[in-house]
Amino acid sequence: MRVYLIGFMGCGKTTFGKKLARKMNVDFIDLDKQIEAHEGKSVSEVFAEKGEAYFRELESSLLQQTISLNHAVISCGGGTPCFHDNMHWMREHGITVYLKVTPEFLFSRLHTRREKRPLIAKLNDEELQAYITTKLEEREVHYQQAQQVIDPVHAKPGFVADLLNARKGN
Hints:
The chain is α/β, with parallel strands linked by helices. The protein has helices at residues 13-24, 31-39, 43-65, 86-93, 103-110, 125-143, 157-169; strands at residues 2-6, 27-30, 72-75, 95-99, 148-150. It starts with a strand and ends with a helix.
């Protein structure tokens, strides 16, 4: 079983995903780390040097390579479900889980860590709040297609693992 974690940047996909993978006794894969390993550069550098279009093509290609993983939790970038029909592909080849949090929660997590995130690195606090609100509204149509929607702040990874394992049995 492949579990694809989706949600806005800063929602906790990596942290929650590692805990979930441990509870499910499967591998954890961070798609952004796969991109960095493939390119030998940070996501920020790939964005800056080759642009978003190149990044999204590479992201989609590496996402599709996860088909070789039989049992894994895969943390996707915030934009992954929004490009190249990736959301449909993930739903066809695994279980998609949207980690849904509020814009306020996202701002609290992102405002001190924006330098590592190419899409928000140069935004001031007011611009960051507006960006989060606008982008979240745009992406919600994709995120809501997930087979499971959870609140990672309150849901325990063990509960989610049990839920997903029960789904697998159906």
